[in-house]
Amino acid sequence: MMKREFVLPVEICPICGAKGSFQVFGRIDDIPYFGETMETLATCSRCHFKHSEVTHLGEHEGSRYEFLITSEEDMKVRVIRSSTGTIKIPGLGVTISPGPGSQGYITNVEGVLNRIKEVLTYAIESSPPPKRRVAEKKLKKIEEMIQGRARAKIILMDPYGHSAIIDRRSKKRKLTKREIKALTSLP
Questions:
Q1: Phi-psi region of 161 (alpha: psi -120 to 50; beta: other; left: phi over 0)
Q2: Does position 92 have pLDDT exceeding 70, yes or no?
Q3: Could you report the per-residue pLDDT of 18-56, keeping only the tens digit for each?
Q4: Which end of the chain is more exposed for a tag (fewer CB within 10 A), N or C?
């Protein structure tokens, strides 16, 4: 299938109100593992607002991937998280759940760990000492994982099946109806 591209001019930027500065660029492509996928990028040349999104246009069954991180080499394993994917690293006590403004991304295991490091580093700055110590322990464990000195399990669940951990050692299974309901229920 040929990729299709489009540009949508929007008269007024919804962020800053500037006229003629806001555009939405898009591309629909056939991507391995996912099928027809639309990528969009909304930008404003005046206030520099930027928002990107990846939307899968086909339907898939809910899926759960599990991967055991055992070495520094595992940092290269590809992780595709859609805007509806939930990532859990039980050994760190970390869950990354999608929210209303959640964006999908393609990265690797190290990229996921670096995202967690960023959040923890920010949290340390404004946390009281007991919570700061907990975050510092988690940061230390992440560094050990990145260097291949600590094992951890990473779990990726997506009720719509648009997320994946791409490695022959990852374990994939269908989500149960109960798991799908838990992932799609509002808190």
A1: left
A2: yes
A3: 999 999 999 998 877 667 888 899 999 999 999 888 777
A4: C
Ordered strands of the 105-108 beta sheet: 105-108, 78-81, 164-166
Q: Is the pLDDT at 106 greater than 70, yes or no?
A: yes
Q: Which of 179, 163, 165, 166 is nearest to 85 (CA)?
A: 163
Question: What are the DSSP E strand ranges found in the chain?
Answer: 4-12, 19-31, 35-44, 50-56, 63-69, 78-81, 86-89, 94-96, 105-108, 152-158, 164-166, 171-174
Give pLDDT, residue 104.
80
pTM attached to this predicted model: 0.77
Instruction: Give bridge partners of residue 173 from the DSSP assignment.
Output: 64
Alpha-carbon separation of residue 52 from 40, 43, 153, 178 (angstroms) = 6, 9, 29, 31
Nearest to 90 by CA among 107, 68, 71: 68
Based on C-alpha coordinates, what's the Rg of the chain? 19
User: Which residues, other chains included, contact 167 with Cβ-Cβ below 8 Å and sequence gap of 6+?
Assistant: 67, 77, 78
How confident is the prediction for the chain on average, in pLDDT? 91
